From TrEMBL:
Cellular component GO terms, alphabetical: plasma membrane
Recorded topology in the membrane: Multi-pass membrane protein
Domain of life: Bacteria
Compartments reported by the entry: Cell membrane
Species per Swiss-Prot/TrEMBL record: Thermomonospora umbrina
Keyword Amino-acid biosynthesis found: no
Protein name, UniProt field: Type II secretion system (T2SS) protein F
InterPro entries, A to Z: T2SS_GspF_dom
Amino acid sequence: MTGALLAGAAVGLGLYALVRALFPARPGLAAGLAAFDRARAADTAGKQNRAAPGVEQVSGLRAQVGRSVARLYESRGWEQRSVRADLALLGRSYEGFLATKFLLPSAALIFLPALVAYTALLDVGGGLALPTWMAVLFAAFFFVLPDIQLRQEAAQRRRDFRHVVGAFLDLVSMNLAGGRGVPEALMSAAQVGDGWAMVRIRDSLANARITGQTPWQALGRLGEDVNIGELRDLAAALTLVADDGAKVRQSLTARAASMRARELSDLEGKAGERSQSMLVAQLLFCFGFMVFLGFPALVRVLTA
């Protein structure tokens, strides 16, 4: 009875998804305008990405599948801002990520006949039920696997980016103390170092000069793209300098100091967690050693 209910629910869900895919709901005016803005922004970003050497380029079947899935997401209004920010931080293509996310489960389902033959060879029984559930579980795992990997890699790279932003704030503050203006101080600070994060900041400032934007607008846009709050705060502070003439050098120094203190506290917390994990591992090792020593004596007492 339970199997029949589950099978009926799966069939009904599949039919509902098929109908929604074949006859999508008509988007409203706001959704249409938002899709138009996203398409225009994606076209501009695509031109910039093709000019940038470090951005992933997708072609072939992967590109076709990725574009089709991206259009489906846009028609549904699924923006996935956090995923786009992580991909922008890692220099990867959104279409390539979607293609990987949907091709991996498809590859898992393709091996369903092999699973059927394997279970029949082992004489496990159950007919098609066991291999079907195994294929579905593998497909679900491979569907969420790209998201897990993306979050882990983006979190590590975002921590590195924040570390570079702290050093960049110190450099900007020193240049301001030397009597330079804000644009000159930003460009001079961005010239120090050739790491990937500093290169992103330098390229953003250079593109702002070409397109006629202010440097703080470019930093704010970069902070929005890669989801770095410190860059957005820096852009807001520099906007106050341009609009109200506020003194920002002391504020930048304080921001850099607070960022270093937060990074130090995070490192201390991680060191404490690793120390606790090492202590637990040592206790488990000692327990296993005691079991190894006492097991022969216990067996001899029980069999006497």
